[in-house]
């Protein structure tokens, strides 16, 4: 019996090994390596002194850490509800039975497949003062003010949020679209015979039936928004005056500009735990949705 | 007599029910429909307008910059910018890098995830459940938060600033294993059993029978891995130092800032980076949309 099992193990090894090795080295090992790094002074060149929990202490009193963590959280707060509502709205439009259906779906989704470098660049050029598209349009319709989109704290946030919505809403829309298509037609037919209005149908059939997928979209969005980095780096560079700088950018700067990988790894742990908790909630939620 | 009466009544019933149906359809015709379609059209145009604008500006003559939007869409047009950029920048090199990295990442991901998924789905071995749960854990580990130690690990293999460093850390996708495992689980037991009875080896079973049946799942994973790799920013931004090895997302911002005074050249560079994905999008739109609902929900 034992021999037979050994034979089975032996046969399974070549199938499992390539994935197992890559997974352990590049996914699991970094967690432990990060723990080690966070306990040392560690530069880009080499490991220096063991400092115990000093990096963690530093993190708790570092105003930049708290500021950038708050900025990231603010981004989550600003994008999540708008993203879910916009995605739902677009899905309802894209689900209409019209000849334009393909056009709608394609247009709403197309920006999502473009590189972050491209969408950020388009945003910068649309938002430029004096020559940008947005300000030109504003002037044409009689608004004389010259908004400096990247120089004002509030406007910079508005710009980043709008660009992010434009860039990523298509993905969420598709999830809602799949949810809409899963609603049995018979529910609508039955309610029609009972004389329900469109609005009542929406409130009492469409919305409740979309709840499970809505929860998935919501959690995926929170999770995704906490990882924000590239579009902010490329559009505002974290400015004006650090007002939009997210945590990942600060981690990057500490590690690679200030040459302090140990402290960067420590702050990564803070992000790690936030994301881990959100992932666990997300996975539980999904399993609930499936059963 | 009574029979025909009954028939008549049936016919009447039929007619009236049809009338009722068409009445229902009538009411079903949403009075707001036109408004909704119009909103849809406006929003759709807003969504693609910047992309179309980019494509038009990229074919404007060199040095073109005007505040009048109408001029962006009217002649003169030229392809000179494209030639200029292909000749005088590294963009072809970056395109090649992005393509090579995305292709190899996709192929390796497909190979290793499908092999592992096959073993977990169809083979017997010790600690199988433990190993599967161990792989599942990967879903909860956010790559963004472990990127600093990942940098150290890749550095210790001397793979910073190399294709290997760009590709290898990205290929072990737990989501891929989970999707493929559930797909392989659906292969009919009789097919597998009869193949084993015929003395088919596991590898042959995998390669000749299970894999061909899993084409839709493989295609979805392939498309998403490819797009993910093509657009990946953070890791290439950290791990690549020499301009020769930049991928497009890392190279373009450099390009954009060196030309910051002009409109047209960076716009052309961005168009060059986007046109391949836009074409791919129109070719694979259905699979992409299906793939999202497939991988997004079941993930």
From TrEMBL, chain A:
The keyword Protease does not apply. Pfam families: BPD_transp_1 (PF00528). Coiled coil: none annotated. It comes from the Bacteria. CDD domains: TM_PBP2 (cd06261). Gene3D superfamilies: MetI-like. It is a multi-pass membrane protein. The chain crosses the membrane at residues 12-32, 74-96, 108-127, 155-178, 216-241, 261-281. It is found in: Cell membrane. Belongs to the binding-protein-dependent transport system permease family. This is Sugar ABC transporter permease. It comes from Gracilibacillus caseinilyticus.
UniProtKB/TrEMBL annotation, chain B:
PROSITE patterns: ABC_TM1 (PS50928). Residues 95-284 form the ABC transmembrane type-1 domain. Belongs to the binding-protein-dependent transport system permease family. It is a multi-pass membrane protein. The keyword GTP-binding does not apply. Its main location: membrane. Pfam families: BPD_transp_1. The chain crosses the membrane at residues 37-59, 94-118, 130-151, 163-184, 205-227, 263-284. It is found in: Cell membrane. Keywords: Cell membrane, Membrane, Transmembrane, Transmembrane helix, Transport. This is Carbohydrate ABC transporter permease.
């Amino acid at each position: 019996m034992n021999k037979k099992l050994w034979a089975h193990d032996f046969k399974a090894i070549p199938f499992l090994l390539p994935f197992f090795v890559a997974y352990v080295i590049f996914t699991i090992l970094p967690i432990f390596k990060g723990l080690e790094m966070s306990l040392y002074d560690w530069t880009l060149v080499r490991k220096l002194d063991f400092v115990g929990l000093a990096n963690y202490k530093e993190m708790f009193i570092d105003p930049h850490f708290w500021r950038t963590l708050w900025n990231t959280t603010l981004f989550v707060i600003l994008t999540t509800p708008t993203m879910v509502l916009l995605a739902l709205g677009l899905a309802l439009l894209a689900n209409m039975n019209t000849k334009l259906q393909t056009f709608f779906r394609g247009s709403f989704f197309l920006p999502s497949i473009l590189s972050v470098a491209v969408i950020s660049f388009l945003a910068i050029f649309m938002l430029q003062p004096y020559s940008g598209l947005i300000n030109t349009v504003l002037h044409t319709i009689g608004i004389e003010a010259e908004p400096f989109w990247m120089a004002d704290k509030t406007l910079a946030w508005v710009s980043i949020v709008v660009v992010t919505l434009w860039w990523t809403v298509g993905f969420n829309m598709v999830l809602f679209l799949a949810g809409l298509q899963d609603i049995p037609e018979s529910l609508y037919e039955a309610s029609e015979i009972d004389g329900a209005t469109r609005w009542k149908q929406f409130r009492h059939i469409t919305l409740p039936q979309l709840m499970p997928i809505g929860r998935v979209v919501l959690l995926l969005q929170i999770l995704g928004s906490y990882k924000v980095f590239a579009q902010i780096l490329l559009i505002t560079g974290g400015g004006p005056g650090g007002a939009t700088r997210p945590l990942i950018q600060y981690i990057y700067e500490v590690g690679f500009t200030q040459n302090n990988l140990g402290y960067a790894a420590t702050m990564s742990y803070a992000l790690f735990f936030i994301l881990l908790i959100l992932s666990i909630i997300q996975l539980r939620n999904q399993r609930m949705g499936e059963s | 007599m009574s029979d025909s009466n009954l028939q008549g009544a049936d016919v009447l019933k039929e007619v009236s029910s049809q009338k009722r149906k068409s009445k229902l359809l009538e009411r079903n015709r949403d009075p707001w429909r036109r408004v909704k379609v119009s909103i849809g059209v406006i929003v759709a145009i807003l969504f693609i307008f910047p992309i179309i604008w980019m494509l038009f500006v990229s074919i404007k003559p060199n040095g073109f910059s005007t505040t009048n939007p109408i001029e962006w869409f009217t002649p003169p047009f030229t392809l000179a910018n494209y030639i200029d950029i292909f000749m005088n920048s590294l963009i072809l090199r970056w395109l090649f890098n992005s393509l090579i990295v995305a292709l190899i990442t996709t192929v390796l991901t497909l190979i290793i995830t499908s092999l592992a998924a096959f073993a977990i789905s169809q083979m017997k071995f010790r600690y199988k459940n433990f190993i599967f749960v161990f792989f599942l854990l990967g879903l909860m580990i956010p790559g963004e938060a472990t990127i600093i130690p990942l940098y150290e690990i890749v550095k210790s293999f001397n793979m910073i600033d190399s294709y290997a460093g760009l590709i290898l850390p990205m290929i072990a996708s737990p989501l891929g294993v989970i999707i493929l495992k559930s797909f392989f689980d659906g292969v009919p037991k009789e097919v597998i059993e009869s193949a084993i009875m015929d003395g088919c080896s596991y590898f042959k079973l995998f390669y000749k029978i299970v894999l061909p049946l899993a084409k839709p799942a493989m295609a979805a994973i392939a498309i998403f891995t490819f797009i993910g790799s093509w657009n990946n920013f953070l890791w290439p931004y950290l791990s690549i130092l020499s301009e020769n090895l930049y991928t497009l997302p890392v190279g373009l911002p450099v390009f954009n800032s060196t030309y910051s005074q002009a409109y047209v050249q960076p716009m052309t560079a961005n168009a060059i980076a986007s046109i391949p994905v836009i074409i791919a999008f129109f070719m694979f739109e259905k699979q992409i949309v299906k793939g999202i609902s497939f991988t997004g929900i079941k993930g």
